[in-house]
Structures are given as C-alpha cells and as structure tokens.
Amino acid sequence: MADATPSRVRAVFRYPKFSGSQYRSHTDTPWPQPLHAAYNWVLRLVRDSLELIEEAFAADRNLLPYLGRFRLQKTIYDANYGLEGGTNIDYGSEWPILNPQPFKAFEFRGVQQQMILLIRTLFDPEELWAKYGLRIERLGIPQPPDELAIEIKYITDYLYKVDSRYFSWALADRDLVNEAWLRHLDFIKTIRFVVSGAPPKMDEFILRLEEFNRMLQFLTPRQMMDCWDRQIFELVAKDVVKVADRGKQLEEAATHEAKYCIDEPARANYDDLSKLANFTFAIDSAEPHVDRRKVFRLDDMSFDTPYYIDKNSTLARLFDYPTKHQSRLVLVEWITLTGLETLDETKTTWYVLHAVKPEKLLLPATIGFFHDESSPRTVGLVFQLPPHIRGNLPTKPAFGRPGEPGGRVVRSPKTIAAERMPTTLRQLILQREPKGVALDVRFKIAKQLVDALHLMHTARFTHRNIRSSNILFFPAPSIVTDNNEPDPWTLDYTNPLLFGFHDAPLEITLTPPSDQPPPAYTQPEGLKPILKKPKGQQQPPPRDVVIDCYTHPERRLHVRLTQVDSRHNPPPSYRRQYDLWSVGCVLLELGLWETLENVCGREIAARAPLVGDYIKRGVTEEEVWADAETVRRAAKGLDVITGTAYAEITRICLEVKPVLGDIVEFERRIAAALAQIGA
After folding, report:
1. Contact 402, 317 (CB under 8 A)
2. Helices vs strands, H then E, count in the chain
3. Measured between alpha carbons, how far is 427 from 432 in angstroms, rounded to an integer?
4. Do residues 591 and 642 make contact, with C-beta atoms less than 8 angstroms apart?
5. Which region ranges are annotated with the description Disordered (predicted)?
6. Is the bond into 16 cis (omega within 30 degrees of 0)?
7. For residues 124 and 112, what is the distance between their CA atoms, to the nearest angstrom?
C-alpha cells in the first residue's frame, strides 16, 4: 500500500482564511495583510450573524416553513465562503490544474463590499425591523436600539470606504480596527435576533439572502465557483445523512425554490439539489424489497432477437404497461445469482435506482424487477428508457395473452428495433465512428461523466462497473424519420446513460494480426492452391478473452486472491477511488478514440487471458501491474490530441496511489478543472 501522505501535497489550509498569496491583482502582486485580516473578520461576522438568525427562526414554530428555505441559503453561503472546518488541499506544482485561480482586484473588493453591506443591514435596527420584521435584543441588558446601532456603525462604515488599492495602513489604524472587531465579536455573543414580522417580511428576508449569494457567485472566479457549486451538493448530502430532519427541510426548500424561481439555470440547480437529497435518502434507507406489482415474469415481456444488445442486456417489450393494452420498450440487464446474498443486493440496487434523482447522475430509472420461476437463478433489472424511445409503440389491442387464441397482435420487433437500439461508446469507437467524433463532443461527454461520478460519490453511491461498453447513447429525439420513428443515424450525445449494474466481465473476440508483414512477392495464381504460407505468416485464430483493465489494479488483485481462497480472503470493501480509475480509462478512450485493448501496440490484448482461464485462475500480479502501466503510459499520447489540460486530468484519474483526504473533494476539483476545457 502506498504512503497515505504523498510528497506531491505541499500544504493544507482552511477556507475561507486564504493566505496572502491567494489574492492577487492583475499584476500578480500580493494583497496587503491588513486587508486579509479585515476580510477574515467579515467572514466570521457574517457566519455568526446567520447562525443567530437561524436560531431565531428555529425558536418560532410558525416559521418552520421558512426555516428550511433560510437554511438552504445559509448552506449555499457556507459552500462558498462560510466553511472553516473542512480542509482543502493545495496540490502545488505537481497538479496545479486542480488549484482554483486566485481572486483579481475587483473580485476581491466586490466580495468584501457585499459582505459588509449585509452586515450593515443585519445590524441596522430600524431597517431590520421595517423591512424584515427582525428585532435585536441584548441578553439580560435592556438597551435602546439606537445604542446597538452605534456598536457596529463605525467599523462597517470604515471598511466600506477602504479602497483596495491601499497597500498599507497606519499601525495605529490597524490596531483600532482590530480592537473594534474584537469588541464587536464579543458584542454579538450578548445579543439575539427575535422574529416579529409577518410571513411576507420573511419572504423578503430570504430573497435578500438569495440576492446576496448570487452577487457573491457573480464576483467569484469561474473555476473556484464551479468548484463551490458542486460543494453545495456535498453539504446537502451530508445533512441528509447526519440530521435527517434538516436534510428533509433542505429537500422541501429546494423543491419550493425550483417551483417559483424564474431564472432557468437557478431553477435547474434547485431541482437537482432536491432530487439529490431524495436520492441520498433512498441510499441511506435502502432495503432489499421490491413491490410485487413491479415483479415481471416471462409472459409479461417479449424478448426478440432484434432487441438483443449483448449477453448481459437486451431491449424488451413490456406488455400492459403502464395501463392495459399499452406497451413500453424497456432495457433489461441480466444478473446471475450466486446465493441469497446476491438476490438481496440486486433488490437493494433496484430500490436505490428506482428513486427520483438528478439527470446529471446519468443513471437510468428502474421500473421493475424480472424474476421468473422457469429460471430462478437469473434475475433482471428492468430500466426505463428515454420518452421518445420507450413510448408510441403501435399495438392492435385484443383479448388474451400472447400465443393464445385472440391474443394481442403487435408490430414486428424488426420494424422498430433498428430505429430505437442504443449504441455503446465502445461500438461508437470501433464500428460506428472509427474516425472519431468532434473533439468538443468528446469533451462534453467527459465532463458529464466526471460530474456524474462526483454526484454519485457525494450521495455515497458507487457504480463499480464503469466502462465504455456500459455507456449508452440513444437516437436523438429531435430528428425523426418518415414513419415518425427516431433517426437511428443521429445519436443524442448530450444524454448518455450509465448502465452495467451486473458484475460480468468484458468478454471480447480478438483476431490478432499476423506476426509478419505480407511478403512482397505475389505467387502466381496457379500455384496458390499448392504452395503453403511461409512459417510465421499464418493468421492466428480468433481468441475469446477478458479485458479487465477498467478495474483498478488494487481491486483486481483482491478479486484474484478471493478467487483462490474465498474462505481466507473475503471480498474486500469497494473504494470510491476504484470508480475514478474506471472513469480515467474512459477519458483515455475518449481522448485517443481507441479502446483499451488497442492502445500501446495492443499490449493489453496480447496479455488478455482467455475466458476459461480468467474464470479458473484469474490473472497474475505481474499481468495486473503491466496492464496498469500500459494504460498510464498510453495517457502520455493525449497531449497532442486533446491538449495538456485534458491529458493532465486523465492522468490524475489514473493515479494508483491512495488519494489524500476526501475523494469527493478530489473529484470536485477534477470536475471544476475539466469544466474549463473547450475545443
């Protein structure tokens, strides 16, 4: 096991207390330390003030509907500027692409002024009461509101007038400012906010906080904002796990904001927050239970040859769904049971994937579970397909079951399968678009994949089988043929779906090339039947092999040991970093537009074990590390094709050493860096 504290990590610091070098002007000149001190004081004042107001909302039962909305805005602020507890790693010169860009002059000053304006609002008794229905009371010491306002007026006015171009303050002024801050921090420990306003005023106050957060986001550098936007999802998911009631409040608040928000990007973000909270709840309460009404059997479906995708999955026609005499096209993934434990795990997977979740996860929704008495050791997860694929299937209604007199008559599957069949990323690379698709399209697919992985791990869900053969694209919904069917030649690259919830390995048939180039001499036509090919020029026979390089090498070694003796080597826990390795392999394939078995002179294909050998003995440790080194060496060829940034991110994903700190934060940085790349 590699050292848990790699030398590539230079330092650890805490948000939001950045060092002076983090804030630089256009000329890359460090900001003066007094301004940083004042900035950190402002951050602390805003945080403490919001916590006091949260206590006031929580103390009044009539304001519980507003408490969730307030906490949602406070969570957004915490994700951006309010956190002090978590660690954020500086990856130094080793991986500089993961470090957000520093603030510029106007951004830093703008953020500071917005915070000071909020503090002035919160501690102006007259405005606070007139606009928002909030009062300030001093604990145990009656004091007129005017005197309370004087306590804060001097320091906020002074800071608001300070110009960020001033690179030094007089020592006397600095001491006065620090003394005033300390006095005010002690002061707010002796007060409380009391809510006395009507609900409309509470709406106004929450809108003021929402406006405050939007201004901060507008003034924050883009890469840093992309990173912090993803951190909002992490905080919501943590609240769901730690405090269920608080998580439920955030989910309901996000649903409310999504319903009434008029800004489309903001509405979409609130909707995703709500759905992620729901998905996290489903994972936290997952159980091996399937409603009997959602258990399908053989006579409920039609499995025809044109629907076949591969040995692990197929399309199928589901009869009498969602209502009588209607039918839907679904996708079924087959899972072979090895015991009751596997059956429970499969049912739990169904339960989780059945929950409402953000589309950014790229995870399909399950609508049922296939289990038939004729084959009790084979079950299937029944997935819902995109609306333009699953519906509008022509059916002639009749009575009875299929195959019985008077049974239903449906259109032949051959006439609809071709127009609606999905294409895997692997098929796209090898067969459909061997010359490659546009680079910007590949970048968008990569960004969606990394974003999906970050959200999965944020919700504590691991996929465990990410590879190009499990990433599916369907025909685009906007283009149809003359018979009102999707155009099979135009794929929707904007909405890939991640399948592959079985544990079957990737089995392919390889036809190795001849060892020697063809001879220059051409035999006369009449001699061809009787002359044999020179030794070494015989075409090797096809081989059925297993390509397992999408699995992290550490995981492959654990699986090999488990196959040797499962009694002394129980299945190890699955680490989320293993999924990141798999994504790195797919990023490599997207960049090179080559499948793994074809990279680096087909080294992986030459080492790939036969299907029978893989099942019997697995792979050796030397083969595992040789494959990993081949994959990582292939990433060196990305720079000239995709550019240095994409290549660097791919190499980071293929890092074998354990990731220092929280893997979710690491993936957040990767996703934010990848979002800046364009063709």
Report:
1. no
2. 23, 18
3. 6
4. yes
5. 510-543
6. yes
7. 18
